Amino acid sequence: MTAKEVLEFAKKNKVMMVDFKFVDLPGTWQHFTFPIEELTDAVFTEGSGLDGSSIRGWQAINNSDMMAVPDTTTAVMDPFTAVPTLSMICNVVDPITRETYSRDPRHVAQKAEKHLKSTKVGDVSYWGPEAEFFIFDSARFDQTSNSGYYFIDSEEGIWNSGREVNVDQTGPNLGHKPRHKEGYYPVAPVDTQMDIRSEMCLEMQKMGIMVEKQHHEVATAGQAEIDLRYDTLVSMADKMMMYKYIVKNVARRHGKTVTFMPKPLFGDNGSGMHTHQSIWKEGKPLFAGKEYAGVSQLCLWYIGGILKHAPALAAITNPTTNSYKRLTPGFEAPVNLAYSSRNRSAGIRIPMYTPNPKAKRIEVRFPDPATNPYYSFAAMLMAGLDGIENKIDPGPAMEKDLYDLEPHEAAKIKKMPGSLDESLRNLEKDHAFLLKGNVFTQDVIETWLSYKRDKEVDTVRIRPHPYEFFLYYDV
Question: Is 140 among the residues known to form the active site?
Answer without folding.
Answer: no
